[in-house]
Design brief:
Blueprint lengths: L27 H11 L7 E5 L6 H14 L4 E5 L19 E5 L8 H17 L2 E6 L11 H6 L4 E4 L5 H15 L5 H10 L4 H18 L5 H8 L3
Parallel strand pairs: 1-4, 1-5, 2-3, 3-4
Helix pairs in contact: 1-2, 5-6, 5-7
Length: 234
């Protein structure tokens, strides 16, 4: 196996971003397709997923990378927000990886050099039968690509919308994430977080991170009074 060249960007994967703790809800077909693509069990090598912030796009892309790396292969996760200060040439030779995951490509749209670099990457991925997973906040035709040829490439492969979970599934997702951290959290506490905080799952997960750290530091259990204190809720 050829070892990929080190990029001027290092993004650590979240340890808890795994397929087995992702609550699929209405996204079961998407989840199955990502697992098959990661395991090289799918005829399709490219997948584009889109959805609102907080739906779990970043979780799924990182889960793909984890699964590929567990098989002894190479994967790279690149959030567009951390690419913008770099030269688009960072996309060159990415096909040396077995799987490339690029998050939030909507942030690259309207920037000619980045659009061209992504266009050429799509072509190389298809020619070499490597695997590519892309995420964005909108469908391919609505994401804002100004390069017509890129617009057509974004439609290659599989395209899925990542649907938001209902409140019950969000509670399941919070519970699964807490368990992955080794946290003991009652259903009452999780329901309190959902009722009094944001219903955006990304924000809820960030709050759980904050509470995890505060609990470790203070050596206290996650109770409703403690959560109010840490998060500044009345």
């Amino acid at each position: 196996m050829q070892v990929p060249t080190q990029l001027p960007l290092s993004v650590r994967l979240r340890a808890d971003a795994q397929f087995d703790n992702f609550i699929a809800g209405p996204n079961a077909v998407l989840l199955d397709s990502l697992v098959q693509l990661s395991d090289a069990q799918s005829d399709e090598t490219i997948l584009y997923l889109y959805g609102a912030s907080g739906c779990g796009r970043s979780h799924l892309l990182q889960a793909c990378c984890h699964r590929v790396e567990l098989r002894g292969l190479t994967a790279i996760y690149l959030p567009a927000s951390e690419l913008l200060d770099l030269d688009p040439a960072v996309f060159e030779s990415l096909e040396i990886y077995d799987l490339i995951c690029i998050d939030d490509i909507d942030q690259l749209m309207g920037q000619p050099l980045w659009e061209e670099a992504l266009f050429h990457l799509y072509n190389r991925i298809r020619d070499l039968s490597k695997r590519l997973v892309i995420s964005a906040n909108a469908a391919p035709k609505s994401v804002g690509a100004e390069l017509p040829d890129l617009g057509s490439r974004l439609l290659w492969g599989l395209v899925f919308q990542l649907h938001e979970l209902d409140d019950s599934a969000k509670l399941d997702a919070l519970s699964a994430s807490a368990q992955a951290r080794g946290l003991t959290v009652s259903d009452e506490v999780l329901q309190f977080m959902l009722n009094h905080g944001s219903r955006n799952l990304k924000v809820l997960m960030e709050q759980l991170d904050q509470l995890d750290q505060a609990s470790l530091t203070a050596k206290r259990k996650l109770t409703i009074p403690f959560i109010k204190q840490v998060l500044g809720w009345s």
